[in-house]
């Protein structure tokens, strides 16, 4: 998969893409990610990317021309992208479902905004969708772009070493994860549940399923409506809500 990220803080984005699963996928050739400095697409001496808002008001607005030039260069060097995503607090809230759709694309462009906003003509002419990562105020789209790219990258076959863990991932089933333990079997007086030491794989599977359901009911009951539950699990839930 090919990804181009446009930002005024390319070192910040590169740093976030250099480590871990995504870093390895890049060096291993599974992901072709290019980070572009928006200032490289300015034509003035001082590489200015912002200007005062028409109509007045506080803050600065990102100028349209550098974004249009950046997209032009990306099209020439890398081909026409399948989607141009603007990271924006006014976007749709990012979910695993967005990631599953985006990983189906061959070429994704991600634009990071800064300042109070971005000239509306960038949206109109270049952007195909706008994504937010949640309802809190950040200073720009760089961290959100890293969130989106990492989430999508994990779904590219081979990027996560163990695709069993991708398949088992909590949001894949729509439930929270069950509790995990490793050695020692007793630590500061706290014992690992006996069933996990028993070697009874069927019992362990049931314990984990119940624990995941319990935890989801307790912490994120909103997830249950869309969770992939089998008949037995639905029954477990309805029994539990009666007690
Ligand atoms: C506080 C300023 N806001 C109203 C006057 C507008 C605003 C503009 C730009 C708020 C934040 C930002 C910078 N944030 C992003 O570009 C951003 C973001 C975010 O802040 N939260 C969650 N997801 C995203 S994606 C991009």
Structure description:
It is elongated and about 70 Å long. Helix 1 (about 10-20) packs parallel to helix 6 (about 140-155). The protein is built from 11 helices and 10 strands. It has a 5-stranded parallel beta sheet, sandwiched between helices. The protein has about 240 residues and is of the alpha/beta class. It has helices at about 10-20, 20-25, 65-80, 95-100, 120-125, 140-155, 165-170, 170-175, 195, 200-220, 230-240, and strands spanning about 1-5, 30-35, 50, 60, 85-95, 105-110, 115-120, 130, 185, 190. The protein folds into 2 domains: about 1-155, Alpha/beta knot, CATH 3.40.1280; about 170-240, tRNA(m1g37)methyltransferase, domain 2 (Trp Operon Repressor, Chain A, Orthogonal Bundle). Strand 5, helix 4 (about 95-100) and strand 6 form a beta-alpha-beta unit. Bound molecules: ligand 9D3. Ligand 9D3 binds next to strand 5.
């Amino acid at each position: 998969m090919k990804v181009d990220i446009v930002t005024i803080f390319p070192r910040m984005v590169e740093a976030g893409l250099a480590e871990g699963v995504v870093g390895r996928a890049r060096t291993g050739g599974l992901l072709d990610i290019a980070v572009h400095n928006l200032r490289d697409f300015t034509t003035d001496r001082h590489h200015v990317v912002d200007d005062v808002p028409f109509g007045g008001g506080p803050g600065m607005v990102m100028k349209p021309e550098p974004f249009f030039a950046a997209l032009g260069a990306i099209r020439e060097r890398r081909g026409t992208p399948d989607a141009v995503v603007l990271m924006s607090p006014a976007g749709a809230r990012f979910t695993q479902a967005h990631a599953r759709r985006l990983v189906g694309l061959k070429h994704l462009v991600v634009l990071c905004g800064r300042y109070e906003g971005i000239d509306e003509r960038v949206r109109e002419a270049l952007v195909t969708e706008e994504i937010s990562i949640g309802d809190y105020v950040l200073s720009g789209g760089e961290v959100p772009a890293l969130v989106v790219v990492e989430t999508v990258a994990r779904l590219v076959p081979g990027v996560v070493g163990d695709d069993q863990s991708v398949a088992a991932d909590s949001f894949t089933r729509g439930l929270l994860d069950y509790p995990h333990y490793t050695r020692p079997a007793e630590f500061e007086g706290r014992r690992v549940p006996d069933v996990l030491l028993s070697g009874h794989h069927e019992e362990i599977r049931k314990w984990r399923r119940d624990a995941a359901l319990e935890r989801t009911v307790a912490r994120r009951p909103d997830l249950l409506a869309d969770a992939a539950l089998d008949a037995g699990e639905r029954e477990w839930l309805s029994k539990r809500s009666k007690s």
